[in-house]
Amino acid sequence: MRYQTTALAIALLSSVPIQAELNDYIYPYSDQPSYSNYGTAGLLQMPNARFLPEGSLAFTWSHYDPYLRGSIVAYPFNWFEASYQYTDVNNKLYSDIEAFSGSQSYKDKGFDAKFRLRKESKYMPAIALGVRDLGGTALFAAEYLVATKRIKNIELTGGIGWGVMDSNEISNPLGKLDKNFYQRTTNSRVGVTSGGELNTSAFFRGENSGLFGGAEIFVPRAKGLRIKIEYDATNYEKESYEPLIQDSKWNYGLVFPFSRGFQVKFGYARGNTLNFGFSYAGLYGKKDPIVKKDDPPKKIKNSRTYKYVNSLEDINLYRTSLKYLKENEKIYLQSASVEKNVYHVAFTQNKHGSYPRMMGRTARILDQLAPDHIDTFVLTNLNAEMPMLTYELSRHDFNRYERLKLTDPLLSSTKIYKNSTEDVASHIFQPITRLPMLINTWAPEVRSQIGGPDGFYFGSVAYGVNSELILRENLTMITKASIGIYDNFDDLKLASDSSLPHVRTDIVKYLKESRKGYITRMQLNYFSNPKGSFYYKISAGLIEQMFGGIGVEALYRPFEKNYGVGVELWRVKQRSFRQLFSFSDYETTTGHINFYFLEPKSKVLLSIKAGRFLAEDSGFNFDFSRRFKSGLTVGAFFSRTDISYAQFGEGSFDKGWYFQLPLEIFSKEHSKSITAFGLRPLTRDGAVFLTHSHHLWGVTDQGVLNHNTRDWSDIYD
Q: With helix as H, strand as E and coil as C, how does 140-189 read?
């Protein structure tokens, strides 16, 4: 009987993954949400309470007359969906002035946000709260509360909406709590602002609200096909600049998933309009999200022979370490010293974004070269000749735990600390580095100007060179220059209307006059770490696209803490539109006090800059970002200064969001290279700070304890 009971328990436990696999077979990709015509997870027009895992990104496109909409959707947390929408409205010109608009249709930009209030359980639905067109023109402004529940192969959704989601009229239930909820301070059809204002006084307000609902039906054994049926709450009298005819509140659609990430959709809405779209979503935050690495640690042939030869003289160990660290891992030995049974090594590298992996690769090579009497490795990583961090590893523990892949015990036996410049300078072996050294990389470059009365897209293709001239280990010249190949800037004519100094809004002139060739940056940087956790940088030259000058940045960043405090001060002059070596008349002093705090559990970085900006306005900039295991970083920012909304112009205040994607996720080899993409609704002159290279917070990023314990599981990669 006892054995029967055990067998039954095993069968029941094993049935869980079997059932999950069976469900995936019958209803493939049903765990992936589909996307609405608004670009966020939902039915056809209405939202639902579905989310992708944190670290996911999605790209959606839909054609739904009179709208053509593209969206970028990010999931910085499991409970938060953020999206940026760019909508072409083909039934309205770009401006009320026809001569100004030309043939350009109206373009609307906005942010959406959705928050999960509770997860779906066995008996209860998932519940989410969302806001549409947050900080936009309010053309599509709406708020909603929505619930979603999966029952076998049907996913049911129901909710209540405000703003343009109030067509299924019921009295606003919040009005019974406070009569002020009956008053919504937005205009109906034409939006409410010049764009950009957070009109929170309108949230969840209005005389009426609307009920909506629908179902998403997963067709069994149909390669993931799903059917959508929806009862629409959109008030099309409010949503469009021209009233849209709605013959039916029922909408219907089909979704065809071609893979886990890629979906194509077809729909019929308003009883008279066909729509088409597609979406692509991926979990980019996990380790190796796209391409698995085929870049294992390399073994050294004849290791035993090297160990014997290296035991005769320390110089042999130094030289073989220098050779194989470079050849096998692109790790460059800067100094080394043997003290009894301890081998001290200092090095630089630009291959591994995971610092424990970098240290593990270094330890493996040294283990194959060092004589048997060496029982401890002291490994110090340098950046710009400044010691970032030091691992003191037991050689015995490193090998013992590697066989069992036990990283936690190794962490307990490893000392991680910040070494001093003096300790590194005292090493016996100091290889001669031939300086100056020039490092060049060549690559195509694209410049873009999106949106405006002159046309939707203007761009150029150039051939660019990024170079680093190393004059000393802590003195470098960073240069970025390009030669133009092709552009369509001839029809780009929009002039700045800003009442502030034109520190950014003359971008059209910069694009047009530099089309043959330009120098984006030629910046000389000197780095120093005079003591402990204090760093500073002095820079001079062509700092960025529009300004050159001289400045200093200082940073205090304690090794074992999660914060940093810094200051920067610059005297700069505006560059000429040609973007070579000449300057215009405008010059100014700009500077900020910088504060950084990394929340250890969520890995959210808060950055605050307070001071004087390039247009001589004063205020602050808030930046929130989160980094994931893969190196993906998702962030958002906003700024407020002492200029009014009217002075700032369209957009009301500076804001936007961005992500940084490590290029190694597309490669089988490890790399520190990243590509960055940012979105800000409009280019204005207020709240603009200098974009200098090699910020000290980034330069010292590897030199803090948190970032090393975060990725400690990579030490044996």
A: CCEEEEEEEEEECCEEEEEEEEEECCCCCEEECHHHHCCHHHHCCCCCCC
